[in-house]
Amino acid sequence: QLQLVESGGGLVQPGGSLRLSCVISGFAPQDYSIGWFLQAPAPGKEREWVSCLGSGDGNANYADSVKGRFTISRDNAVNTVYLQMASLKPEDTAVYYCAALAAPSCLRGGDPYQYDYWGQGTQVTVSS
Description:
The protein is mainly beta. Helix content is 0%, strand content 48%.
């Protein structure tokens, strides 16, 4: 059983930056790959994959929409995964969730149904 808690969201102007944190607690958190998803505010929008970091291979993957702007990283000493977001755009506005995948790599990381545990989400609003 794992618990994930996101923080770091807020209101930022276009072009600005934010760093989201995902603190993981529970049994053997280092064995889980961690992904980030977003859910935009439009009705009926499903969660979209943003990024994933493999626990075993250390590989980071990104959705095309955020590649070059977002960076995922992990500090196992404090059981925290970060999502550094730069050059933010209004279309990045969403609730951002971190999730834990019981696998050493992110080969299945784009599918939200593969994840075992989810955080409660943190709101990111990009607006002038």
